[in-house]
Amino acid sequence: MPLAKYVFKPGINKEGTNYSNEGGWFDADKVRFRKGRPEKIAGWEKNTLSTFQGTCRSLHSYRDQGQTDYVGVGTNLKYFLKQGDNFNDITPIRKTSTNSITFAATNGSSTITVTDSSHGAETGDFVTFAQAVSLGGLITADVLNQEYEILKTLTTNTYTITAKDTSGNTVTANSDDDDNGGSAVDGSYQISVGLDVFVKGTGWGADTWGAGTFGSVSPISASSQLRLWSQDNFGDDLISCIRGGGIFLWDESAGATQRAVAFSDLSGASNPPIIALQIMMSDVDKHIICFGANTIGASTADPLLVRWSDKESSIDWTPTSTNQAGGVQLSQGSTIIGALRTRQEILIWTDVGIVSMRFVGEPFIFSFSEVAQGPSLIAPNAAVNANNRVYFMDRGGFYSYSGNAQRLACTVLDHIYSDINLSQQFKIFGTSNENNNEVIWFYPSANSLEIDKYVIYNYLENTWSIGTTSDGFTRTAWIEAPSLDFPLAAAKTTGTNTNYLYNQEVGHSNDGAAFTAYIESSDFDLAPDGERFTFISKLIPDIEFRDQQSTSDSVTFTIKGRDYPLQDLSTLQTINVTPASTFENTRARTRQAAMRISNSSSDYGWRLGDLRLEIRPDGKR
Question: What is the DSSP letter of 274?
Answer without folding.
Answer: S
